[in-house]
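BUG: 3D viewer hangs when loading the predicted structure for this chain

Environment: internal workstation, default settings.
Expected: structure renders.
Actual: progress bar stalls at 90%.

Input used:
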Amino acid sequence: MSHSTNESRLPSKFLGLSTKFVLFISLVIIAVCSGLSLYFIRQQSDAMRQALLETGLLLVKNLAHNSRYGLIARDLVLLDQLINGVMDIDESVYVVFTGPDGERLTAKSKANVYPDHIIAESLIRSSATEVTITPFTADQGRRRHHLYDFAITIYRGNERNSPIFFFESEESADESQPDVRRQPLIYGVVQVGLSEEKMNQALNTMIGNVTFITLTVILAGIVATVLLTRRITTPLKTLVASARRIAAGDLTVSVASTTRDEVGQLTTVFNQMIEALCERDAQVKQAYGELEDLNQSLEQRVRQRTSELQAANEKLKELDRLKSTFVSVVSHELRTPMTSIKGYVENLLDGLAGALTEKQTHTLERVKHNIDRLTRMINELLDLSKIEAGRLELQLAPINIADLVEDVIENYQAAARQKSLTVRLLLSPPLPPVRADSDKLHRVLINLIHNAIKFTPEGGEIRIEVTARANDFVEVSVSDTGPGIPSNELDKIFDTFYRSQSAPVEARGAGLGLTIAKNLVELHGGVMWVESTVGKGSRFSFTIPVARLYS
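Structure tokens produced before the viewer hung:
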């Protein structure tokens, strides 16, 4: 594919890495600088306003303290001197003294701006003791003043709760009049007005300086970002152009490394990659030559290997057949001596050879139990070898499944009573006859019920359910209240020679019973499965086709 074709695959409009990098860093710089500037301006504005409020509080309190005697004596000269002292402050706009009757005693203003008389009257009526701060706006021609009015009521002793008692005779006291003896004596109200104009001028100057510094930092950051981006992306663009030439098949490309940073390291690795590609190209050409030579003899080698595999497969089949034959012969030969041994043991237990002590009887019973177990294993091996060899034949005939199940349960009643187990048979009539080999189906039921009794603890329950299904099958289920089977073992429970690791050692068999049972069910055309919950028990189920399927 040509160089121009590769370039044509790129979109016509896209943002390059340098543009994305510059935009991202610029936005970050703008956001950070703007945020810090706004935060600084807000902090300074709040600090200036707080300083203005503290100044007003200090002025009005000092003025109230110093003017108390002037108000008592109605000394206007003293009050004017105090007013002039306050008016020397730049932020001060006016000072007003109001008498206790609401009459304005004296006042002075820089801009002919005065507060509303309602403020003083409300303070006199409410008898407030704290400084009242009232922000308001006053218009003077085209100018608008934003002011803060600081007002405080002056009491005798400068304490609202200092009662003034008047001594009167009991005869002069008029109980119908309100009791004023305990009312505080008000000397007047002093009001000081401060303007935000000077604060706003300082704030505007600061905002201008901060804005200039912020813009300067942003521009410097953007310029630095552009320069840094160019330093990074220029070598990358060179690498991209060289990569396109390599894609077109030109392996003579070489890129000079101009820096020692990560981009320079990338350039060095890129050159090493080109050298490796050249070496790989030479190796590929050599490999193609060798491959052509190998292709000439490949077919002959395949035939040879196929012949060897077939011979090995035949040998494996022969070994498997010999194994099955060996197991069958050995199992068959073991049955006769085992039967003989069992007979002698039973004779001894019956007392034919003389009386036995209790310990000898117990020992012989254990021997008989193990002989029965070994005999069962031998029979299972024989059945398994016949199934694997395909020599197991079924004698199919119509069978009453209910009678067969009841017969097997009857054989295990003694074993169940020995462990105090409850065995329940649940039949769901009508039950049609099934087409099966009575002996083989008997073996399946024996295996499932024997396992249920073996794994169910004393006092547990075993349920055998027989139900006719709608698809011309009869389902048989054997449930127990044993320890259950872990979920990770459910798919292995029917494998040959598999024994559950969760089962007690003394309860483990040869691992053949369930395998044989499953194979026997499948030979009849049915299926077998298991459901189990750890700690609650297991449920083994299988199906057998009804007799009319074969009629």
